[in-house]
């Protein structure tokens, strides 16, 4: 598909539209079945929710076709499917007066997230312009993480101080900090990957980088530890640390970073368990959820996870059916434990289908990280895809007792304004990068930067032309308006080498 012209790309656009119709139909079907199971008729607001979701989906589709015609045609329908199914589940919990569940609020945040994603796609013509904001992104990420610790602005909820309140609205700044840190890591590592991979001394066969090269990254790592200590947020700390190690590995291709990261994580986990009581409580719940004392504890006990496990067991292989289960018995079934709620009503088959949809999104993100022609885009796309996969593992692993609960939410499915808004921005960036990755090399991005695209010299990527322009197409003053000859391209590459 990457070699097609816009008019030849029409079948791709039609395929995306068809997939959007299927995704919306599944979500609307869920709301329809919820209404007939609980109220013997269409639920209140069914047509409003359905029309708004369809309008949002096809508006995004049109924006993509106008501003990013070569963008991936699968990612948007996959996300719309997850968001539509979550709408059905939140509506189902809302109909049984589940405290905190509110379908209208969920739709409002979904609409805001889609609108912001469209704005990002419309205004961000070239993802490489974000590279200019490398250190700005680092500062923004650190400020966002620290905001909940400011007296009067941050507030502790359910044992973790990760929220800020501005009037009637609440936000979880860490959701946006992960995007800022991904931009920072991508910009910093693409400029310093050689020194990180090759400079420094070897220890036990591992290439250790110089401390001065790691300085800015260690600052972000220290911030993630401060989050754990000051805000009692194990999940966000794990997410930041995983992003830190994952992007280092992507940039340097050194397995040693995985070993170092796992060692640091093991040491930090043991230290956190020995120092912090809330971490000890999470581990106790993980290891002994059926303990009578833990189960009966009003706050911080195992009641939530046990009820979630019972619900998924009741769902069995094919589920109890929309509206036929009892997910309202699980605390925060619409946010922290929406995965367990879906498991009760859709069964193991439904949960596996949902995981496959996430797998498709992550796989497409990694695929475009390989295909895009600049190092910054490769790292940014890879980092965003990795952080989504890590968040999915942490959430599902906590609910199914593979790891202790961390308090993160399931992207696009859990009710929560911060999560929906931040993850739609992630999708917008992935779509923008996919457009650059799939764009034919003879068609540079309109309004592109002067930053060149990479050519391979000595096995490493260097930049010699405009976006999507390889060394043979790189223009010179003598050859403006035409592709460079092989001899001219050779001179350009040799000049860059020098």
UniProtKB/TrEMBL annotation:
Listed GO biological process terms: cell division; regulation of cell shape
Main location, first listed in the record: membrane
GO molecular function, one term: lipid-linked peptidoglycan transporter activity
Its membrane topology: Multi-pass membrane protein
GO cellular component term, pick one: cell division site
Places the protein is found: Membrane
Keyword Repressor: no
Keyword Hydrolase belongs to the record: no
Tree of life domain: Bacteria
Membrane-crossing residue ranges in chain numbering: 12-34, 46-64, 76-95, 107-124, 133-150, 162-190, 235-251, 258-276, 346-366, 378-400, 412-431
Region annotated Disordered, chain positions: 473-498
Keywords: Cell cycle, Cell division, Cell shape, Membrane, Transmembrane, Transmembrane helix
Protein name per its UniProtKB record: Cell division protein
Organism field: Promicromonospora soli
